[in-house]
Amino acid sequence: MNITSSLFQKYNLPVPRYTSYPPATAFNTVFKNVEYLEQIKSSNSAEPKNISIYIHIPFCVQRCHFCGCNTTITQSDDKIRRYIDAVIAEIKMVAQFIDKKRVVTQVSWGGGTPNSINLNYVRQIMQVLHSEFLFADFAEIAMECSPAYLDFKDVDVLHEIGFNRISLGIQDFHSDVLDAINRLPPKCDVDEMLTYMKSKGFRGLNLDLVYGLPLQTPESFRENIQQIIKLQPDRIATFSYAHIPWFNEAQRLMEHHRFPTPAEKLDMLVYAINELSANGYEVIGMDHFARKDDDLAIAKQNNMLQRNFQGYNTRKTTGQVYAFGASGISQLNGFYAQNIKQYDKYAEAIESGTFAVERGYTLSNPEILIRDTINEIMCNGELDFAVMAEKYNCSLSEFLEITQFDILKLSSLIDDKLIEFADNKLHVTPQGMMIVRNVAVAFDPAFMFQEGKYSTTI
Ligand SMILES: C[S@@+](CC[C@H](N)C(=O)[O-])C[C@H]1O[C@@H](n2cnc3c(N)ncnc32)[C@H](O)[C@@H]1O
Ligand code: SF4
Q1: CA 445–ligand 1 middle distance (angstroms)
Q2: Tens digit of pLDDT for each residue in 346-387?
Q3: Do domains 15-362 and 365-443 have the same CATH topology?
Q4: pLDDT digits (tens, 9 = 90+) for 81-135
Q5: Which residues of the chain have pLDDT under 50?
């Protein structure tokens, strides 16, 4: 596969990333605890039956100045202990309404830096999950880790607790870039760490890189890509850094450094795509790559890829998502519910014996069809209109009316060979997968271009 900068530039438009449909910007504050309880109860009779769990740990040891995540810098055991107790109480509160026959196929820990807290807290929460829910023997138990706080002993403990997937936030291999973003380097050699994790049976090992960080140059980023190819992780994510200091105050602290220009960022992305695809990695979707023998690449080949707020997943393991902790977003069949973002306010709500939902969204039936349509395009790059209409018990013309699809919206993508379209069947080419949100937007009737509302790809 070879994608050119000019093609990328042409489609570098502000459209939603479709991590969810509707995007989180559409959530409202009418949706609160009462609605959440109703939806948890009804989720037992909805599909999929299996359960995905997300645990958010909103704590880090040091603030990386580029960071866009919901986190607080603290190592106070009192604060962390109080938070863990609240998460455990929330799990128990939700679990009492969940059908005991349903099985957990996925647990994802994110943050913040979940591996920076005392791992006994992690063990405690996992024990509570096991006592409240039934687990499938193939369940994926994953944690996003910062390599700055991870050593071989920690990997042993995580393995013993039941983890079998780990993602490491590398961001950049160069010490000057890490210094510029106020980030500590990995505690252990990354190559040895990956080999060790593989020997313990961890799979789907992922490394995150970010392009667009201060002091990065096209040359230094090429070195990152070559280095990552040598390391051979199962999966790679390359995220674009967006400089939005009015939203993330700490980003101002990097402004005295030189940042790569948009053209240089484009060069980095194009290099990453072309070089990773030439070296055995498959483009999974926006920003994500997987080795051809990885579960995600296999699922992609079989049109069995799914996506949620935790990233790309296989259809086998993706369930309805019940999120626990501050800012966690539950994604059940017909709605989204997001918890209060500040960790102390979240804990206060749970301590008072209620849920801690701050906002959410209930989807209408047409919106559920649109979400599924967009998901098929974003994950598998295939859409058969007739199959989708049949699935939702509607006619082809109703499908076209609900999505307000018009082939004219896709004509330039067809001309540029990024998609193929015939007999109401759509196929996104491997090049097209890199700008797949530009394809998905053609099926989103609510979308209107709004200056500044969504980020561009680069
Ligand atoms: C919660 S962090 C991962 C775990 C751990 N806290 C760490 O930093 O290694 C999730 C990932 O989001 C990405 N990320 C965070 N802030 C970002 C930003 N402003 N722009 C692009 N990617 C970002 C980074 O690649 C990071 O690894
Ligand atoms: S360690 Fe991760 S979550 Fe914490 S500030 Fe750095 S990038 Fe953000």
Answers
A1: 31
A2: 999 999 999 999 999 999 999 999 999 999 999 989 999 999
A3: no
A4: 999 999 999 999 999 999 999 999 999 999 999 999 999 999 999 999 999 999 9
A5: none
Cα 239 to middle of ligand 2, angstroms: 14
In Å, how far are 45, 122, 202, 380, 400 from 164, measured between CA atoms? Answer: 29, 14, 5, 25, 42
What is the helix (H) or strand (E) element at residue 132, kind and residue range?
Answer: helix 119-132
Question: How many CA atoms within 13 Å lie on the side-chain side of 343?
Answer: 22
Distance CA 398, CA 36 (A): 30
Q: Name the residue ranges covered by the structural domains of the chain.
A: 15-362, 365-443
Which CATH fold would you assign to the domain 15-362? pyruvate-formate lyase- activating enzyme (3.80.30)
Mutate to test the pocket of ligand 1, among 62, 210, 246 (most ligand atoms within 8 A of CB): 210
Between the alpha carbon of residue 60 and those of residues 13, 69, 183, 249, 337, the distances in Å are: 33, 10, 11, 16, 24
Ligand 2 pocket, residues with Cβ under 6 angstroms: 60, 63-64, 67, 69, 71, 111-113, 146, 169
Q: According to the model, what pLDDT value does residue 31 have?
A: 83
CA of 234 to the centre of ligand 2 (A): 22
Cα of 166 from ligand 1 centre, angstroms: 14
Model pTM score: 0.94
How would CATH label the architecture of 365-443?
A: Orthogonal Bundle (1.10)
